[in-house]
Amino acid sequence: MSDPTPVVPTPPAQSGLSDNAAGALAYVTVIPAIIFLLVEPYNKSSYIKFHAWQSVFLTVAFFAVSIVAIIPILGWLIAIIGIPVLLIAWIICLVNALQGKRFKLPWIGNLAEKQVGA
Fold it and tell me: 49 in a domain, yes or no?
């Protein structure tokens, strides 16, 4: 005789992080953003990928402004304006990702959307 107990499928493995938390964590440093782009199940979510790519491009913008800051006078002026603007943009992105919103920065957000394919 066969056993009449039904077979219960096991639920899929979960990552332990919600999409909102992972999206916000991508902005903490560029390292989690790169990890989320490479590791499953994070790289399957367009929400997480968008925030990870936007974080990577925001980091590149910070780096570019820092390099320009080496130039006397003009570079200093660009850095005095650019670094606080990028810092405010970073905080806005982090808070919006934590709230589940897909906040798109000008230029950088468009690049992130192209990478995600959204």
Answer: yes
